[in-house]
Amino acid sequence: MKQLIECVPNISEGRDKAKINAIASVVETVEGVKLLNVDPGAATNRTVITFVGEPEPVIEAAFLLIKKAAELIDMSKQTGEHPRFGATDVCPLIPIANISMDEVVPYAHKLGKRVGAELGIAGYFYENAATEPKRKNLAACRSGEYEGLPKKLVDPAWKPDFGPAEFNNRIKGSGVTAISARDFLVAYNVNLNTTSVRRANSVAFDLRENGRVLRKGDPLSGEIILDENGEPAREKGALKAVKGIGWYIEEYGIAQVSLNLTNISITSMHEAFDTACTKANERGIRVTGSELVGLVPLQAMLDAGKFFLRKQQRSVGVSESELVKIAIKSLGLDDLAPFDANERIIEYKMNEGAAKKLVDMSLTAFADETASESPAPGGGSISAYAGAMGASLATMVANLSSHKRGWDDRWEAFSDWAEKGQAIKDELLHLADEDTVSFNKIMEAFGLPKNTDEEKAARSQAIQDATKYAIQIPLRVMEVSHSSFELIKAMAEIGNPNSVTDAGVGALCARTAVIGAHLNVKINAGGLKDKAFLEGVLAKAKKLEEEAIAMEKEVLAIVESKI
After folding, report:
1. What pTM does this model have?
2. What torsion, rounded to 10 degrees, do the Cα atoms 7, 10, 13, 16 define?
3. In sequence order, which residues have a C-beta less than 8 Å from that of residue 480 and are 6 or more positions away?
4. Which of 26, 31, 344, 436 could be a cystine partner for 64, CB 3.0 to 4.6 Å?
């Protein structure tokens, strides 16, 4: 499986669209790298660029971007609200798939050394790529910002990890760059109904892990209290793995709490937002919404949607699209500008331009495609889809039951059932497409050359492998559809009585899915030579069908007794 890393350079230009586009465009010149997002901020004069790919192409793209940014951005003339010290201010590398943090660190070091050697740009390694503990924190590396570089670069304690240790003409223009290997970070701003930076900072100090410095008497001007080590004592903030400051954004005419969520498995986006609402309210300030800078993983949005639905005591067993919609509205991500999920969620953006799935078609288009002269989609895909419809009907009953008047004390139990149903539905929809994929694999295998003995052997093996896969897919359809009967039966027994017939139709669909998929298992089995594998598969499939027929009868008996 491919190793994927994400790179999120922040450049110190957020106003000149021509420069921003010229810098971002170099990423797309590297084969195998996908540019996901370009997010400029005029007030901060900063743009966050996000791209993803395999490690080596990403490193090449990052190098080219740093080079182009140094050519087009003159740090001696740059101003902006955001802390900064370089044309490419930071360039973090983030493990995304099939690669560990330990494996990413050498790539960060490789990039930095090349930037120093070939571009003459100095910089520091931070976070997991740091060469010493004090450099792990980006704020420490960036202390003094661009204006402090003449002194900092010649300070032995802050000798750059790469590039020249002097403020020469090159550095005067380019500034320096901080490069890291880090966990996924969400740059997240909370919007306030105030213009006061001081009050925004107060909320930020309430939230961020590092909190605020303790003082005697006046909390702003009083004497700093020192701890046993002689360091400023601090009152910790409410949220772990969170950094934050307050600032005023002239573009919007509001103050914001600007947060970096450095580990969303510790503090989620929705937790940060909800706590910000509480802390702001305690200070007489209202949160009006929030702003996402860059992209966010899909799971973070799904978790947020479920969090806010649970707060409303509503079922979380709804579709992915509904959860995303709830998250956007609850977090107020569309407060300042429209929020396009397809552009801001990593998984959606990565799938941009991918081949259209069967299940993404309209009902009419799906039916038309099935009715065409093409052999796929066929009975296997339809069986999976029938199973998905059965699970969907039972999930509908669970959701209706969760929201039924007078059943308020039972909403969570029905929500759990609905969530299970959504998972079953989603897998079966995936299998509807995968069945067609498995058929195409067989056709591709039969199309392989067979001119030599080696080619014949390879073709024969490819046919066997594809055939085995074409058996496993409908078998999985049988297993998943079979598992839906637990949900269907429960909804027939304890669900909203007005929807009991929906559970009955769900049982009919589930049985059809099992029997239909069994037919595909049997017909594909005829071409497989692995008899030991077939013996186990066919026995399992037969048992699943027998049990599905029996469970359908059981559910229908319950339904008939209630109508």
Report:
1. 0.78
2. 30
3. 387, 424, 427, 428, 431
4. 26
- Condensed to tens digits (0 to 9), the pLDDT of residues 236-254 reads 999 999 999 999 998 899 9
Token representation of residue 257:
């709490």
- Calculate ∠ Cα 367-370-372, nearest 5°: 110
Instruction: Give the residue numbers annotated as catalytic, written as ranges.
Output: 82, 435
At CA 561, angle to CA 560 and CA 562, rounded to 5? 90
CB of 242 within 8 A of CB of 207? yes
Given a cut of 90, is residue 184 above it in pLDDT? no
Return the structure tokens found at 102.
Answer: 């330990």
pLDDT of 200: 96
Q: Which residues contact 415 (CB under 8 A, 6 or more apart)?
A: 310, 314, 315, 316, 317, 398, 402
pLDDT at 347 over 90: no
How many Cα atoms sit within 13 Å of 412 on the Cβ side? 6
> Which letter does DSSP use for residue 295 in this model?
-
Can you list the domains of the chain with their CATH numbers?
A: 4-181 (3.30.990.10), 186-350 (3.30.70.670), 358-562 (1.20.120.680)
pLDDT at residue 1 greater than cutoff 70: no
For residue 256, the model assigns a pLDDT of 97
Q: Residue 371: exposed, middle, or buried by beta-carbon count in 10 A (0-12, 13-18, 19+)?
A: exposed
Q: What is the mean pLDDT of the chain?
A: 93
